[in-house]
């Protein structure tokens, strides 16, 4: 089953301990028997993890009890809305970091064009020394 789901046996055991998977019935020889639904469930867990859901969040998603009444739908909506807000915040942070990286890249390019082999990395300078010291040096 682990191979079909694309995970290790240890992962299956871990998911069982975390109650993400229902206990599997065992054969007389002690081997666990998994249904096709369990394989699909493991794949769902891995997919949800890959897009940023924690195992706690995944457990909440998986533990919606049928019938799918309004309370379950509202709970699911709240989980999804919280995750969407988290993703939006992360995207904002990533966009800001991209701007910072572009700024640093432009600074490096400018320094290399101006000074060639004698270039002193402005990024290292900016990161290594506090702004207060850099301003004081510029005033001199």
Task: Please summarize what this structure is.
This protein is mainly α.
Total number of helical segments?
Answer: 7
Q: Which percent bin holds the helix content?
A: over 70%
State the order of secondary-structure elements, H for helix, E for strand: HHHHHHH
Terminal Cα separation, in Å?
70 Å
Largest sheet: none
Count of β-strands? 0
- What would you call the structural class? mainly alpha
Strand content: under 5%
Describe this structure in words.
By secondary structure, this protein is mainly α. Helix content is 70%, strand content 0%. It contains seven helices and no strands. It has helices at 2-5, 9-17, 36-50, 55-62, 70-115, 122-128, 131-139. The chain is elongated, with a radius of gyration of 26 Å. 6% of the residues are buried. The mean pLDDT is 85.
Keywords:
single chain, mainly alpha, 7 helices
Topology, pairings included?
Layout: H1 2-5, H2 9-17, H3 36-50, H4 55-62, H5 70-115, H6 122-128, H7 131-139
């Amino acid at each position: 089953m682990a191979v079909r789901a694309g995970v290790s046996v240890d992962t299956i055991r871990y998911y069982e301990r975390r109650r993400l998977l229902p206990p599997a019935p065992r054969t007389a020889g002690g081997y666990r028997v998994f249904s096709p639904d369990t394989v699909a469930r493991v794949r769902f867990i891995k997919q949800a993890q890959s897009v940023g859901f924690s195992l706690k969040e995944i457990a909440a998603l998986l533990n919606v009890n049928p019938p799918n009444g309004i309370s379950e739908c509202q709970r699911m909506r709240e989980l999804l809305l919280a995750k969407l807000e988290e993703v939006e915040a992360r995207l904002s942070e990533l966009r800001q970091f991209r701007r910072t990286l572009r700024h640093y890249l432009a600074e490096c390019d400018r320094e290399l064009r101006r000074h060639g082999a004698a270039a002193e990395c402005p990024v290292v300078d900016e990161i290594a020394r506090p702004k207060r010291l850099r301003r004081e040096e510029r005033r001199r």
